[in-house]
Amino acid sequence: MSYTLHLQILISALCLLFCKPSCATPNNGRLDLQLPFVPVKTPPLSKEHNFTLRHIYHKGSHRYPRLFRKIDIHHDSLVQDGTKESCCEGEATSTAFAVKSNALEIQRLSDRSRHSIDSLLEAGEFLGEPVSLTSDAWTIDRISGPDVSDKSTVLSFAHIAANAYVDPPHGGGEWTNIGGGFNYTEDFGWERDGLRGHVFADTENKTVIIGLKGTSLPYFDDGETSNNDILNDNLFGSCCCGQGGQYAWKKVCDCQTSTSTCNSSCLMTSLRRKSSYYHAARHLYHNITAIYPDADVWLTGHSLGGVVSSLLGLTYGLPTITFEAFPDALAARRLSLPTPPGYSIGDVEKHYTAIYHFGHTADPVGKCLS
């Protein structure tokens, strides 16, 4: 038997074993052969990441609602770690933070596109309550998220949350306008207005952590955003916008109708103003995901930054770790954030939010951990 015949028999046998015939094409009349399916390996959900600071964003809210600026950070830049000792002594730490990920389950909307979420929130604002969605609109996904059982990971998130308070490090670039088309260079007051977020990415640009700045103390306000921070504190966390309490409390709405009564509709309208940090955070999130369209996004923040992070995480179904955030379920209800059927905001036993609070034990939208 010739070599050519042996080869033809071998090819025929392999085709019978591995190839699946399909219909002949009308053009050539030949039989097309489909190669065997080779499974694609999915990336592991548990791994170690090394995050570095990449960008700092500043989104205007009250005085400059259309302001949106950013600084791109070089890899060799240094940033203060936010502690008093390093600040006062002028020390700085590298922007690299080690984080471990693990598989976790999260219940979230199947359609989390910008248009879909905006439509749901607008409808909820019109109705005065969350839009009622069927169970088909929700999914429970198994995704990669931060390993909250790992102490070093939690500490890295704490450092990232603390870094959001620190001014841009030496070695970074200049502030550049990326929205609004206005030049705010001559107005030095723009830094006092809005929400600031620090963006960290891992070495593969596959995972991004957004750290949102919390409340700056007014006693040490030097170009910081303390006035607007306190306004948002009272919008999100106060029973009635800071009314009916001590004289020093900052009143941020006119919703109190009597000594112990507050107009609920007025409260919800006040919280949904476009000037609130929640809307600024959503705008920031969409711009960051435009830069990293295929990356997983995790959130973190301290105090007010933690509250805004948890509200953002609940809206878009994002793993979130917060530190010393004040109760946030009240704000989530007032914003009419959509929830799965049979679930009420604050019922953490039924809803897999993948939101974890440290130093927070009351009225959460996620789980409280010690």
From TrEMBL:
GO CC, any one term: vacuolar lumen
EC number assigned by the record = 3.1.1.3
Recorded hits in SUPFAM superfamilies, A to Z, give: alpha/beta-Hydrolases (SSF53474)
| Membrane topology per record | Single-pass type II membrane protein
Query: Where in or outside the cell?
Result: Endosome, Multivesicular body membrane; Prevacuolar compartment membrane
| Keyword Membrane applies | yes
Q: Which reaction does it catalyse?
A: a triacylglycerol + H2O = a diacylglycerol + a fatty acid + H(+)
Q: Which residues form the Fungal lipase-type domain?
A: 283-314
- What's an example GO BP annotation here? multivesicular body membrane disassembly
Keyword terms, alphabetized:
Autophagy, Endosome, Glycoprotein, Hydrolase, Lipid degradation, Lipid metabolism, Membrane, Signal, Signal-anchor, Transmembrane, Transmembrane helix
What Gene Ontology molecular function terms does this protein carry? phospholipase activity; triacylglycerol lipase activity
Q: Where is the signal peptide?
A: 1-24
Return the similarity comment. Answer: Belongs to the AB hydrolase superfamily. Lipase family.
Quaternary structure annotation from Swiss-Prot or TrEMBL: Binds to both phosphatidylinositol (PI) and phosphatidylinositol 3,5-bisphosphate (PIP2).
Q: What does this protein do?
A: Lipase which is essential for lysis of subvacuolar cytoplasm to vacuole targeted bodies and intravacuolar autophagic bodies. Involved in the lysis of intravacuolar multivesicular body (MVB) vesicles. The intravacuolar membrane disintegration by ATG15 is critical to life span extension.
Q: What is this protein called?
A: triacylglycerol lipase
> What species does this protein belong to?
Aureobasidium pullulans (Black yeast)
